[in-house]
Amino acid sequence: MAPQLAWIGLGNMGRGMCKNLVEKGKLDKPLIIFNRTQQRANDLSEKLPSGKSQVAATIEEAVLSSDIIFTCVGDDKAIIDTIETCLKGGVEGKLFVDCSTVHPDTTEALAKTILGKGAHFVACPVFGAPAMADSGQLVCVLAGPAANVEKVKPYTTGVIGRANIDYSGQTYGRATHLKIIGNTFILNMVETLAEGHALAEKSGLGSDNLHTFIETMFPGPYTAYSNRLKTGDYHNRQEPLFAVDLARKDAKHALKMAEAAGVRMKDVEVADAHLEQVQKHQGSKGDIAGIYGAVRQENGLKYEV
To answer: Which residues are catalytic?
Structure first.
């Protein structure tokens, strides 16, 4: 008999991952879903195939009848609070799978707490934008005891993701360690694109000509972000694709890790300073791609294209 699954956290990433679990996960029971704002869970459930999901009113309700509980929330405090609530009832033998992007120390602390209650844990942060979550093209990073990782794999490759990075048998925090370092690549990519587009505009080449080069030489994420910059998507969205607050959280985790290791990440420092300007200009509606607006401003251009 297939296990009962629950999903806690329906942000930009969680909604797409749930959709693919329901559509491709070969579940024989409705997916139990919970979100702090229940209307978001209700809205998602209405969009999913009839009878394939069930909205829980509380975290405790979601956990009670579930065997595997996925969590995907915004930051360290949110996942600590979520797991604390999850563990209020009897959880012995249940498997918790956290897809949140948090500091490795947080991941290790969660694991210790969960194991102390007789439950099991797998760290499973993911790489990819919301569109990749929707299309099931994420890259999943799995860490924890091999036997538990194997229980999660039926829901990763070919379901919520296109590939796994398998750290079976390694420490739980190894997965989020990679995730934080990996996200600095995204920060640096956006910073590079922002500076390049600003120079192209001010020097007379033009953003369209630069974009032609980017889509020819660097198809994929570079092209996608370049298009967001030149079309103004970085400041026009009602809901950010990669919220500035979360981007700064990741940058600060990376800088803290670097300091502890005796490494200076100057690129991340520059990007974080630009993210701070995005926060000042757009508040919580700002997006990581708003780095372009900050770069434009410091070079005598308007924030918006």
So the answer is: 179
